[in-house]
C-alpha cells in the first residue's frame, strides 16, 4: 500500500488523554534505557505541550498496531512512530478467557481514542516528509 492509499484518521479531541499515554510510555522507556534519541525527546516535548498545540494522526496497521504521526505546527515538526496497544491486547486476552472485570478495563488506551475520537483525513505525511527512524 502506498503512502497516498494509507487510511489516516485525525484525533479530534481527547488529545490530553493521548498525551497521558505518551507520558506513561516515556516514563517506562526512561527506566529501560539511558539513551535519549531525538524521537524520544520529541515525544517528551509533545507530552508537555498544551493539547491545542499538537495534532495527532493515526493509521491502523493491524488489530493492535498504529502508525502515529504527530505534528507540532508552531515548530513545523512532524514525527512518526509505531504504537503497539498492549492495553487493548490484554483486554482481548482477558475477555477471551471469560474475565470481564479487571483494572485493565479502566485504563484509557489508544484503541479507545481511535474508536471514539477520530475522523478520516488525508495522509499527514504527504504535506511534510519528516519521518523518524525510531529510537
Question: How much of the residues is beta strand, in percent?
Answer: 15-25%
Mean pLDDT: 92
Count of helical regions:
4
Total beta-strand segments: 5
Task: Give unreliable regions as ranges.
Answer: none
Helix content: 25-40%
For the termini, the CA-CA separation is 24 Å
- Principal-axes geometry comes out as globular
The largest sheet is: 5 strands, antiparallel
Please identify the structural class as seen in this structure.
Answer: alpha+beta
- Biggest sheet: strand arrangement: 4-3-2-1-5
Tell me the count of domains: 1
Elements, N to C (H/E): EHHEEEHHE
Rounded to the nearest angstrom, the radius of gyration is 15 Å
Molecular structure report:
With 135 residues, the protein is of the alpha+beta class. Helices cover 36% and strands 22% of the residues. The chain has a five-stranded antiparallel beta sheet with strand order 4-3-2-1-5. A hairpin with a 4-residue loop joins strand 2 (55-60) and strand 3. The protein starts with 7 loop residues before the first strand and ends in a 14-residue tail after the last strand. The mean pLDDT is 92.
Task: Write the SSE topology.
Blueprint: E1 8-11, H1 15-32, H2 38-48, E2 55-60, E3 65-72, E4 77-84, H3 86-96, H4 110-117, E5 118-121
Antiparallel strand pairs: 1-2, 1-5, 2-3, 3-4
Amino acid at each position: 500500500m502506498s503512502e497516498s492509499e494509507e487510511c489516516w484518521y485525525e484525533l479530534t479531541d481527547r488529545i490530553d488523554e493521548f498525551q497521558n499515554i505518551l507520558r506513561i510510555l516515556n516514563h517506562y522507556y526512561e527506566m529501560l534505557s539511558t539513551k535519549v534519541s531525538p524521537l524520544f525527546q520529541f515525544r517528551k516535548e509533545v507530552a508537555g505541550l498544551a493539547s491545542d498545540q499538537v495534532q495527532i494522526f493515526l493509521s491502523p496497521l493491524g488489530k493492535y498496531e498504529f502508525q502515529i504521526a504527530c505534528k507540532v505546527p508552531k515548530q513545523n515538526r512532524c514525527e512518526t512512530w509505531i504504537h503497539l496497544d498492549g492495553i487493548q491486547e490484554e483486554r482481548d486476552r482477558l475477555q477471551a478467557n471469560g474475565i470481564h472485570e479487571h483494572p485493565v478495563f479502566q485504563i484509557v488506551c489508544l484503541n479507545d481514542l481511535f474508536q471514539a475520537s477520530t475522523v478520516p483525513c488525508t495522509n499527514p505525511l504527504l504535506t511534510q516528509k519528516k519521518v523518524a527512524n525510531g529510537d
